[in-house]
């Protein structure tokens, strides 16, 4: 029965009946997969440093201009965005799913909305969202210009 | 090992990656052992664009790799990343392909892949710590 009802990964992107948490969950998994694949490439790529200066420097030039101007920095920026989103959303999940920072329990009153959890979750989404924009902006500006604030 | 214990390690490695990953990003920017803090710095030799400096230049990267402190940071980061990423893959794949037989195949396949990536990455770090090949 479980297998018959299973929709697989397509269900990650079902927007109906679900809120922003569902989209953030889907994006968390997608960015996780992207970063996992990137790590494997990164480990192979960095191992080329063992082949010496000429190989390494020419590899870096190719990675900067793989398919044309600014393509390398664009890929690096996409990886940075994925990493920042995954890290900060992971921080939110660690706090919310483990019940950290929750206030003391209160007497349930009609209409029984889980106010404490929802409030904290919404606060974290906004706070970490701003933080994500700030870190990403600094990172992308650095990638393209080399300027450090 | 119980699934709850594995997930606890997943959370902990996630937090540690946040700390050590930040060092990694700083190391290719603000903390890079070079006065030239851009990723790539080029010169033109006979009209050919040549890498001449920057935080990803060979001598800069080698200076980082041959430092015991940064080598240790990389090794720890690699350990946390390999666990976190491949356990994440295991969870996603186990959800996509349910069943005890599929779970066993997924677990062992992911474990082998994780070992390969870990050994490959560690090899680079250890060899570079001794100055390369």
Number of helices of chain A: 5
CATH class of chain B: Mainly Alpha
Helical residue percent band of chain B: 55-70%
Biggest interface pair, counts: A-B, 40 and 44 residues
pLDDT < 50 stretches of chain A: none
Q: Count the strands of chain A?
A: 0
Q: Just name the CATH architecture of chain B.
A: Up-down Bundle
Strand fraction band of chain B? 5-15%
Element-level helix/strand string of chain A: HHHHH
| Biggest sheet statistics of chain B | 2 strands, antiparallel
The CATH superfamily label of chain A reads Fumarate reductase/succinate dehydrogenase, transmembrane subunit
Structure description:
The complex is a heterodimer of chains A (149) and B (133). Chain A is an all-alpha fold. Chain A has helices at residues 2-5, 20-46, 53-64, 71-97, 115-145. Chain A has one domain: Up-down Bundle (3 helical TM bundles of succinate and fumarate reductases), CATH 1.20.1300. Chain B is 69% helix and 8% strand. In chain B, strand 1 (41-45) and strand 2 form a beta hairpin. Chain B has helices spanning 3-27, 58-65, 68-96, 100-129, and strands at residues 41-45, 48-53. Chain B has a two-stranded antiparallel ribbon. Chain B is built from four helices and two strands, in the order αββααα. The radius of gyration of chain B is 19 Å and the shape is elongated. The interface between A and B is large, with 40 and 44 residues.
What would the keywords be for this entry?
heterodimer; A: 149 residues; mainly alpha; 3 helical TM bundles of succinate and fumarate reductases; elongated; B: 133 residues; 2 strands
Could you provide a short overview of the structure?
The complex is a heterodimer of chains A (149) and B (133). Chain A is 68% helix and 0% strand.
């Amino acid at each position: 029965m479980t297998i018959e009802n299973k929709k697989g990964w397509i269900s990650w992107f079902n927007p109906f009946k679900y809120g922003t948490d569902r989209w953030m969950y889907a994006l968390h998994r997608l960015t996780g997969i992207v970063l996992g694949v990137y790590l494997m490439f990164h480990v192979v790529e960095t191992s080329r440093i063992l082949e010496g200066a000429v190989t390494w420097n020419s590899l870096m030039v190719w990675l900067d201009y793989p398919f044309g101007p600014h393509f390398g920095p664009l890929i690096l920026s996409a990886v940075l965005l994925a990493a920042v989103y995954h890290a900060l959303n992971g921080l939110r999940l660690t706090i919310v799913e483990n019940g950290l920072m929750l206030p003391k329990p209160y007497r349930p009153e009609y209409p029984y909305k889980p106010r404490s959890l929802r409030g904290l979750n919404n606060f974290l989404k906004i706070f970490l969202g701003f933080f994500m924009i700030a870190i990403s902006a600094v990172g992308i500006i650095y990638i393209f210009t080399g300027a450090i604030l | 090992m119980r699934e709850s214990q594995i997930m606890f390690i997943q959370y902990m490695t996630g937090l540690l990656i946040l700390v050590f990953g930040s060092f990694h990003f700083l190391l290719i920017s603000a903390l890079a052992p070079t006065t030239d803090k851009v990723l790539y710095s080029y010169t033109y030799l006979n009209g050919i664009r040549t890498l001449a400096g920057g935080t990803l230049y060979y001598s800069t990267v080698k200076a980082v790799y041959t430092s015991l402190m940064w080598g240790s940071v990389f090794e720890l980061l690699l350990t946390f990343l390999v666990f976190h990423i491949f356990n994440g893959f295991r969870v996603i794949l186990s959800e996509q392909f349910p069943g005890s037989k599929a779970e066993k195949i997924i677990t062992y396949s992911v474990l082998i892949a994780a070992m390969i990536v870990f050994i490959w990455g560690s090899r680079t770090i250890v060899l570079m710590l001794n100055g390369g090949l």
